[in-house]
Amino acid sequence: MEQSTSANTSDVGEGISLDRGLVVRHFRQIVLWPLQLMPIRDDLPIQKHCDFIQTQDFTNLWREVEDEFTGDPSLFQERHYSEFITFLPSVQRFLYGEGTGRGPGINQESPIRVFRRTDVARVRMTYPDTGTLPVIFEVAHIDLYFFYDIDIVILAMEIFADDLPLACVEDTMLRFARGYPTYWESEGQGGHCLKKAEWLARDGTVLASSDYEHREKYLSFACQYRAPCIASHWEFLLEPLVLHHSGKTGLIRYRQIESHLLPLMAYLTIDNPAELAREDFIRLGLAAAPDSSDSLPYSEQDLGDFEKRCFYDRYWRNRDHARRGTRFICSGRVFTEVSDCGDRLSATRKTGLEQFRHEYFVLFLISHFHKATMLMLSDRLVDALNRLEPDNLESIRHFRSMIRQILGVFLRFTHRYWFQDVSEHTQVKELFRMTNRHLGTAQLYTEVREAIEDMSQYLDSDVLRRQGETMVRLTVVTTVGLIGMATTGFLGMNLIAEADSPFVKKLFIFLSVLIPTTAVTLYTIFKSRRLSEFLEKISDEHTLWRAKLSAFLDVWRAKHDRLR
Questions:
Q1: pLDDT for 16
Q2: Is 320 in a helix, a strand, or coil?
Q3: What pTM value is reported for the model?
Q4: 138 and 282 part of one domain
């Protein structure tokens, strides 16, 4: 193992300024990456991507995580129980499913399936500052969350380290959770990205590393596929999933539905959080770059009401400078918890590390799952509209099928996954609402619902229009047929007395009547639109006879003659 991996605290101390002596005793960051899964088979209404993840030839990188409720009851811990009772019954069924208490053989599994890989043990981060040595972070877990009937997968990666300078923590929050660079510095490195991110195995072997500095790769990819390319180390982490906009072969394909800024959660414990200035809290809440000048990351005008919008201070004591307690900062994409190392009531107040890793992680996961689903459905609607050709009956039929499928997914999502509240615990409920408010999920939900309703109304009106045209044609055919029916009824059935004639002669007479009648009927259907216009002219008492005669002649005129 390399020397820089042996002790992360010593590496940090030599290269990074301690920033006024502020040291984060424990730092933990959870990165989420919601991605849209592409259909494996278009004829399947429900895609089960997770059933294929372990069938690929990748030496079983991903293993399904066994739920705590299906394992050995003796291993069911108090934290599992605390997490379970935090949420409302409807959310409990979503997260954990239902047990067998309702009767023998009844066991409704959770619609969430989690897969985990364990080959990546550490992350080595190299920062752009040339005077900074690499920092090693331990990897707690790397998971993939699949959701039944929703083509969304969420990558969750949790890392942690102890005794880090505050500037290092802020720099990590700024640079690590980025899928690809948005620009490049003059030195060639990706803007606001790490200089190098490396996945390490337990023996120190480098499994994959970032390539933010390869500008030509990102430029050519965007030019060729009209979509951004993700960094190589993230691409490695998602295998065997394959980026949809690429030339790589793979059964499970994904595409990005959000920006390069990945949602993240951060947990910090400090000896005395009172030493943190307002500027530090704002940087931690926005994942902004560290600044030794103690200035705000943005203008005062923009951040004037930041505390009111993003701070949750239920357990924050402004008057007690020795023991401040816990402060939550939520800005939507970033969820940060800053705690006092000496807070003994953290467990009972649900402000400790276990609550952060489980209860708050779940509410953060649900919020971003809601947003990702709305973006996915919106993308499907746009794709359906782009494929629609109004003059092509087959395209209209395919469009109708796609909209009905999207409507079915939306209805099932609403009744299975959509929650206004997830808990009756005050801080959990309010933090969930705060996260959703910043993400705008309620507005997204309304916009998608209205868009689907507009599509459904369009399809319904189109069906009614076609039915109306069909009824008009049938009415015209019936009207024309009444003439023949009246004539034969007036003349009687004995007009041609051939009842005793040979069968061949009767068949000839039958066909002599059937064929012209069929031809006249088909011709009437062919001219039914023009005949309907003629009948409307005839029925209008205010129309002149010259106009009625012109409408009659229009029935047999060519189309270009009528347009003159």
A1: 38
A2: coil
A3: 0.80
A4: yes
